[in-house]
Specification:
4-stranded mixed sheet; alpha+beta; binds adenosine-5'-diphosphate; 32% helix; binds magnesium ion; single chain; 7-stranded mixed sheet
Length: 320
């Protein structure tokens, strides 16, 4: 198989996808560049992420999982902006051509793209260490993107799903143990919260997706918004997979874990009553875990009011 055949196989596999997408490319894969039409009154939201073998995933992870996660990571950024997925680009570097691996990779990618209704509009294929860069593009109504900088004192802090599960699966794997299935799923097949993100437009005051750990990412939102927050450990959900852990151990996974791809958002008090309906409509658990306060920084408080100190620096590829 040649580079040309690889690209062609992708093109064939993904050819049916554009019909099911809301905004098919004017000109997709095959020319020197794609031509995309942004409908009037909409703005383009663009995000790119790279996943490198043995840095972001184990090399022996199933190819379909690697593909699905690579796309989901970018979709999660679209979700946190409240965008509707439209097009994505795949720049992939492969050490060699392994047909079985490639088929599985394409299948995982296609499955995820189908469910998000996002079209593969182009990319690049090169030989080199396994690395996948996906650029995802979505659309929002003009001026309505969800941003990090809109939180205000008094807003509630809400998180979706169960942060900490992916970190738990990773820890189990590194220790040579078998991770429980739901946490393995969280690690290998994160589900971008697209429906939730779109439902939050006009409701949430600020939003961020949780990729580097809840406290670190909430910290970014606080910095952008120019305020502080208090998080109450007693309000963190207790998923069965983490229920056996000592409380402090569990909080560490939940607040500093990473790889969650949940949404953390702030909600003006007047909308608090809408949370149950939002949760039902999206099929996603939503937990109020704290509130925005005046000042700066994140305080994590136990039921008795005592502050818990937690590393909240988040993941840094270059930290020694
Ligand atoms: P060029 O030499 O002009 O960069 P390429 O041979 O890299 O062209 O790509 C030819 C076409 O195939 C382009 O439209 C490009 O977007 C598409 N393409 C190449 N690799 C991929 C990929 N991994 N995923 C999707 N589209 C791809
Ligand atoms: Mg090229």
């Amino acid at each position: 198989m040649s580079e040309f055949e690889l690209i062609n196989s992708l093109k064939e596999k993904f050819s049916g996808l554009s019909q099911s997408c809301e905004h098919p490319a004017v000109l997709g894969m095959g020319d020197d560049a794609a031509v995309l039409a942004v409908p009037g009154g909409k703005q383009l939201v663009v995000s790119t992420d790279t996943l490198v073998s043995e840095v972001h995933f184990f090399a022996d992870t199933a190819a379909a999982d690697i593909a699905a996660k690579s796309l989901s990571v970018s979709l999660s950024d679209l979700a946190s902006m409240g965008a509707e997925p439209a097009w994505f680009f795949l720049a992939i570097s492969l050490p060699e051509i392994d047909l079985g691996w490639w088929e599985d990779f394409c299948d995982g990618l296609l499955e995820t793209a189908r469910s998000a209704k996002i079209e593969l509009a182009g990319g690049d294929t090169t030989q080199g260490p396994l690395s996948i860069t996906i650029t995802a593009m979505g659309l929002v109504d003009e001026g309505h993107a969800l941003r990090r900088d809109g939180a205000r004192p008094g807003d509630l802090v809400v998180v979706s799903g169960n942060p900490g599960l992916a970190a738990w699966a990773l820890q189990q794997k590194l220790a040579g143990e078998t991770a429980p299935e739901q946490s393995l799923n969280a690690l290998n097949r994160p589900q971008a919260r697209l429906k939730l993100g779109r439902a939050l437009v006009g409701v949430a005051s600020a939003c961020i997706d949780v990729s580097d750990g809840l406290s670190a990412d909430l910290g970014h939102l606080l910095t952008a918004s120019g305020c502080g927050a208090e998080i109450f450990t007693g309000q963190l959900p207790i998923p069965t997979e983490l229920a056996h852990l000592d409380a402090r151990d569990r909080w560490a996974r939940q607040l500093a874990g990473g790889d969650d791809y949940e949404l953390c958002f702030t909600l003006p008090g007047m909308y608090a009553g809408q949370l149950p309906a939002l949760s039902q409509e999206t099929g996603i658990e939503l937990h109020i875990i704290g509130k925005i306060v005046a000042g700066t920084g994140l305080k994590i408080l136990q039921d008795d009011g005592q502050e818990v100190s937690m590393p909240n620096a988040g993941f840094d590829h270059f930290r020694k």
